[in-house]
Amino acid sequence: MKMQITEHPLFNLPIYQVTLPGFSQYHDEIVELFEGLIRSGQLKAHENGYGYQTRTDLLLPGAYGKRYFHELLASGFTVACKGILERTRVELPTNQAWVNTLTVGWANVQTREQFEEESPWHDHLPATLSGCYYVSTATGDEGNLQFLNPLMDNIFMPPSIEFTPQPGDLIIFPSFFRHRPGRCPNTRRTRVSLCMDSYWTIRGAGVEASDGRGTGDG
Ligand SMILES: [Fe+2]
């Protein structure tokens, strides 16, 4: 007896790839900035999370003496997030809108590190949407952005999937999606990703709106 078996995907979480106009001109400068902070000892391994990570001050106005983190990166990310939220299955009445309450950012810098352990799988809850802007990527097949299967480990699906970022990519994903950056033990280039978390709520007519604007809602 010949049976027909048809497969339907049940798990298909969205990952968004966005371009950020006007930012690529700063790539070299940003790599030099963070390589310099590591060289001078101002940025130490594991002091703010796994590997070389800055504090969550990247999107504050004038952070690291640069205007573009706040003015281009934070605002571009926020606009993209709003566009993404407006595409979800949440249909808002015309008198309501998605409102950004907080956006924070930090840099994750990966040198040719020989750290003993993998970066841990993690999520960014309770944020709504998270983003990684790739200033530079590792060489070879290292430093991919890895996402963990959100269902239990099973033989029907891969345990994780990898996205290979390119410089200039802004990757936005639901903050509950567990992920980690791949290791870069052999890279010939420093990998710099600018990480962001964005918090959103719905506000509308008749709702008392407090000033919940955050550090980078541009
Ligand atoms: Fe992360």
Walkthrough of the structure:
The chain has 218 residues and is an alpha+beta fold. It has one domain: q2cbj1_9rhob like domain (Jelly Rolls). 14% of the residues lie in helices and 28% in strands. The chain contains two helices and nine strands; from the N terminus they run βαβαβββββββ. The chain has helices spanning 27-39, 68-85, and strands at residues 16-19, 52-53, 96-110, 129-136, 145-148, 160-163, 169-174, 179-181, 191-204. It has a six-stranded antiparallel beta sheet with strand order 1-7-4-9-3-2. It is globular. The relative contact order is 0.26. It binds fe (ii) ion. Fe (ii) ion is lined by residues 122, 124, 179, 195.
Stated plainly, the CATH topology is called Jelly Rolls
Q: Which strand order do you get reading across the main beta sheet?
A: 1-7-4-9-3-2
Bound molecules: fe (ii) ion
Structural class: alpha+beta
Pattern of helices and strands: EHEHEEEEEEE
Largest sheet: 6 strands, antiparallel
> Radius of gyration from the CA trace?
19 Å
> Portion of residues in helices?
10-25%
Distance between the termini: 63 Å
CATH architecture: Sandwich
